[in-house]
Amino acid sequence: MLEAKIPRATSEKKASKRKSQKFSSADALLNAVSELFIERRSLNISLSDIAQKSRLNSALIKYYFGNKDGLLLALIERDASQSLVALNALLEMDSPADRKMRIHIAGIINSYHRTPYLNRLLHYLIGNGETAASKKIANFFVKPVVEAQRAILTQGEHEGVFRQVDAEMFYFSMVGACDHLFFATHSLQPLFGELQVTEDLRRRYTSHVTDIYMTALAKPRNESAS
Amino acid sequence: MLEAKIPRATSEKKASKRKSQKFSSADALLNAVSELFIERRSLNISLSDIAQKSRLNSALIKYYFGNKDGLLLALIERDASQSLVALNALLEMDSPADRKMRIHIAGIINSYHRTPYLNRLLHYLIGNGETAASKKIANFFVKPVVEAQRAILTQGEHEGVFRQVDAEMFYFSMVGACDHLFFATHSLQPLFGELQVTEDLRRRYTSHVTDIYMTALAKPRNESAS
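Output (structure tokens, whole complex):
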């Protein structure tokens, strides 16, 4: 047994130190990747770029994350979990469903705007056809969002302000609608002369997507009285 | 697509023969890639896979398309141009705007469904950060679609059936909405137990996206009479 070889008295302290070192090095690697993505506006970074930025040996990537894709998956997990915390707080709010839905739509667009690489990274990891990565993304990111939206839609139906829509299809169309401006950056230059989504474009897009979905969800006035 | 450099001194007959050979070999390469993408449900194909499938030397890829990305860009151009022909025919139709918009939405979803690799390929080429490829995609694909949608939206406003919406933002949100089910295939399995978009899911999604956008576009009844 491996355990028997380590004296108990010292192992706890050592394990604790090792654990905190692990987390700080792993975090340093994640921060380095995040900063490089934002600086370069590209996913084209090498292991040695990450090593240089984090001042850590690139062998640590293999140690903590298995490979570069494992590191990227961990970065998505970290960034997406911030959005999920906000989403859970939204669900707990004592507010009418239409207000929650407006906040949710703006929240999705803001998180794509705040973390401009998130979307490309998600697309890159999925595009790679890595089944394990795809399943992980579905479980930690997609399912909670689908459930949260279903809860808001149901609340809105009970309050008599939303008509019934297909909640699962709603997830795909609404997230796709929020996502596309930030993904299709190739279209920004010819259409708006901008190379990235400016603050003004973000506001204009939020206003448009909110308008489309809130109008589409609203129960017609003559029906809401019934 | 890269034009092959043909010496000026060649006779017209020779040039014509070479031109038709060029087109048939180039087409054979494009067909091979398209078939491989559909067979394998993946973008992971090598130059030697393409050579084997097309029974042509892989050096011809470099000759006709510069490199593999050039070949992929030409494939997108070919497949997207079929959709653009259909879109132009739609614009010429003597039909009310709401009917045109319904056909347009179903058409976008159908083209993603018919050519399942189109979307991943577009995402792959854009994700590569190839500025030349991104610009080409914007010019041959995005601009014509934006203009077509603007024409249908304007027609609908004149006919008194559509309210005014932000036509440029509409392009991004609507195409994003149509696109996401086919891109986010990682979410299909956990949500529906399906590994790809079935005929039934396609119909359900078309019905949902059409419902959302047609409801959102409709001029409220009390206003349409004014």
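Chain A has eleven helices and no strands.
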